[in-house]
Design goal:
Blueprint (H helix, E strand, L loop, with lengths): L1 H64 L3 H9 L1 H41 L8 H40 L1 H6 L5 H13 L4 H16 L1 E4 L2 E4 H18 L9 H16 L1 H19 L15 H15 L6 H17 L2 H7 L5 H7 L2 H10 L5 H19 L5 H4 L1 H13 L9 H14 L6 H13 L3 H6 L2 H12 L5 H9 L1
Antiparallel strand pairs: 1-2
């Protein structure tokens, strides 16, 4: 294939040089000027045609989406996704449209050349050397224009495809039956380095291809290579995640999540598309509705499902500016889940409280450090804290009645919290857990030691250091009752207590 490209390049040059010799200097100069007009016109026309093609594609997507009300609503609410699809279509189509437009305009300008040659009686110079030398130069210049127009899309797409296969290791391995790596090694890579054509492309054509394969995006220039390889990188890392069961995830999968987060954060369009998708899927799954036919995943553990809801609430409010950071924060938490084998614990199916395991394993302590430094993850922090609070609600019933039925217990919890808080507002959670064990026993509240640890951490996290040193016991009790009344799925807990 490399020799085909090289042969075509040399052929274009030779034909134009021979034609230039035949035309001579004056006619050759006139033809060169008309070719320059065709070149500029093709560049402009390629952008116009690519815009039309992108609009047509986006309209087609909306028409196809009309058969699926949820998908249609998603596109309507996230029009930036359609804009991104259109921009990518523009960037992919413009280089080849440039070649097609040049061929058409070259034919039209040839007619113009003939008319001008007759109208202005353009002939050949009398000097043979001037005529041949000038014609040779004009033919060579015309040939270089033709080669530039030819190699720009051909070499641009060839190198793009070759680099895609090289970078997408996981994807190409999964598509091993197609022989993409072998095809790339034998044909595409050699073609991308074809003699003569590759030199001309690297000199001028590469810059022209980059300019053609760009589009305006949110007031900035977006380039095909940047966006394309960001998408391929994310897809390749996603392929890593499906190679092993979730319960067996390790450092490789953690690295893949971080790479995906970085890829999304670096791509303008991927950030827009990803934030729109995460918005849609999170809002749908928070409402227990399928998203584009995909049902909400269930962990099998009630507390874990509530923690998942915390993540959904984070991503339900993300946007293109926040999505990279949100995904990176998720990746950091994912690292901890791998470190403490949380996925294996969920998948084991063994009886026991997952929330208690998160405390005893040390997972909770490290997660708290992460959550304290990442305000966007507050819904996740609340969800984890909910795990202990839910146990109390299941034991005590409706929090709306606590001021009457559990006032003494709530006051004792507040008093104990105040007692283990130092002057700077720092809580000794170990002492708090130990003393709460006694408090619960005195009030006949049946809570095991692991869950008591979780409740202690949740109670301590409810207040800032300043509040712990300034609020009265009564004020803290009111806050705790209000917090217990906000736990997720509280109606179910109250019903279980009543039963």
């Amino acid at each position: 294939m490399q020799y085909i490209i090289m042969g075509a390049t040399v052929l274009i040059l030779v034909i134009n040089v021979l034609v230039g010799l035949g035309r001579g200097f004056s006619r050759g100069l006139l033809r060169l000027l008309t070719l320059l007009v065709a070149l500029v016109g093709a560049f402009v026309l390629a952008g116009v045609l690519a815009d039309r093609a992108s609009v047509t594609l986006v309209d087609g997507v909306h028409e196809m989406a009309a058969s699926d009300p949820q998908f249609a609503a998603f596109l309507e609410e996230n029009d930036i996704v359609g804009d991104a699809v259109g921009a990518l279509a523009h960037m992919l189509a413009a280089p080849i449209l440039f070649l097609v437009a040049y061929i058409v305009l070259k034919l039209l300008t040839w007619v113009v050349y003939l008319i001008l040659r007759v109208c202005f009686s353009v002939g050949k110079p009398k000097g043979v050397l001037l005529n041949l030398g000038g014609g040779l130069c004009m033919g060579l210049a015309a040939g270089l224009i033709g080669v530039l127009v030819f190699v720009t899309p051909v070499m641009g797409y060839t190198q793009l495809f070759s680099q895609t296969i090289e970078q997408a290791d996981s994807l190409t391995q999964r598509a091993g039956d197609l022989g993409l790596e072998e095809y790339n090694e034998q044909y595409i890579t050699p073609a991308s380095t074809a003699p003569v054509a590759s030199e001309l492309y690297e000199g001028v054509g590469k810059h022209l291809f980059r300019s053609l394969s760009s589009a305006e995006w949110e007031g900035e220039k977006a380039y095909l290579e940047d966006e394309w390889f960001a998408v391929i990188g994310v897809a390749d890392q996603a392929a890593v995640l499906v190679e092993r069961p979730v319960a067996e995830y390790g450092e490789t999968e953690s690295a893949a999540i971080h790479n995906m987060a970085a890829g999304v954060g670096q791509s303008k369009m991927l950030s827009a598309i990803s934030s729109g998708l995460f918005n849609g899927v999170s809002n749908a799954w928070l409402s227990n509705q399928p998203f584009l036919g995909v049902e909400r995943p269930q962990s099998g553990d009630e507390n874990m499902d509530i923690i998942l809801n915390g993540f959904f609430r984070v991503f339900a409010t993300t946007d293109p500016a926040l999505i990279g950071g949100d995904l990176e924060s998720f990746a950091d938490l994912f690292d901890l889940m791998v470190k403490y084998e949380v996925f294996a614990q969920i998948s084991s199916g063994e009886e026991g409280d997952l929330a208690a395991y998160l405390v005893t394993s040390g997972f909770f302590d490290e997660v708290k450090e992460l959550l304290d430094t990442t305000p966007r993850l507050e819904p996740v922090a609340v969800a984890i804290s909910d795990a202990g609070m839910r146990v109390l609600v299941r034991q005590l019933g409706d929090p709306a009645n606590y001021a009457e039925t559990c006032k003494e217990l709530m006051d004792d919890i507040s008093t104990t919290l105040k007692a283990v808080t130092d002057e700077s507002g720092q809580v000794n959670t170990e002492a708090l857990s130990n003393q709460l064990t006694t408090v619960f026993a005195e009030h006949d509240v049946n809570v095991d030691a692991d869950t008591t640890d979780l409740i202690a951490k949740g109670v301590a996290d409810e207040f800032t250091p300043e509040e712990l040193t300034t609020l009265t016991v009564e004020e803290m009790t009111d806050r705790l009752i209000g917090r217990l009344g906000d736990v997720e799925n509280i109606d179910t807990l109250i019903a279980e207590n009543a039963a």
